[in-house]
Amino acid sequence: MNTHKFFGGIALAAALALSACGGGGGNEGGTTGGTTGGTTGGAASGAAAGGAAITVNADPTGQLKFAETTLTGAANQALSVTFNNPAALAHNWVLVQPGQDQAVAEAAMAKGGDPTGISGVIAGGKPITSSNETVQVPATPAGTYPYICTVPGHYQAGMKGTMTIQ
Ligand SMILES: [Cu+2]
Questions:
Q1: Ligand 1: centre distance to CA 5 (Å)
Q2: 50-165 to CATH, choices 3.40.50.1380, 3.40.50.300, 3.40.630.10, 2.60.40.420
Q3: CA 64 to ligand 1 center in whole angstroms
Q4: How far apart are CA 129 and CA 39, in angstroms?
Q5: How far is the CA of 123 from the centre of ligand 1 (A)?
Q6: Taking 60 as the threshold, does the pLDDT of residue 36 lie above it?
Q7: pLDDT band for position 53 (cuts 50, 70, 90)
Q8: Burial 66-105 (b: 16+ CB within 10 A, else e)
Q9: Which residues neighbour ligand 1 (ion) by CB within 5 Å?
Q10: Rounded distance from Cα 129 to ligand 1 centre (Å)
Q11: Which terminus, N or C, of the chain has the lesser number of Cβ atoms within 10 Å?
Q12: Structure confidence by residue, pLDDT tens digits, 89-135
């Protein structure tokens, strides 16, 4: 009788301990995982879609201009900009620091239009024809930023626009 109660008590205590431990651990894990996963997932999907999905087109008729001369984007978060050039004439989309558009255009001209590595460039792709490309813009503080096409002569002909980051 005493022995039976003794082992019964141990079994009960063990079951409670397991239950409490398992339950507590599960809840903590669930809360932590949910919060972390939710925040990370939200930021990632926000950069890929949501308000951060930005598309800009070159003029479809082959004129030296962008179809959109103004764009907006969220400040301090990475932006994904899809540049579409439906024309057979090469164009690109290059976001530059305020006041640097002319300097960047001139520097790129010396490189045949390639904006890679030019001071003042925030982000930009190489010139493309009849296709599209995605330009990853790093988190940028609020401001007004020019964007240009760096194919030689295009900026000078007016292929530029303004992106408001806010
Ligand atoms: Cu162009």
A1: 87
A2: 2.60.40.420
A3: 6
A4: 38
A5: 16
A6: no
A7: confident
A8: beeeebebbeebbbbbebbbbbebbbbbbbbbeebbeebb
A9: 91, 149, 151, 154, 159
A10: 10
A11: N
A12: 999 999 999 999 999 999 999 999 999 999 999 999 999 999 999 99
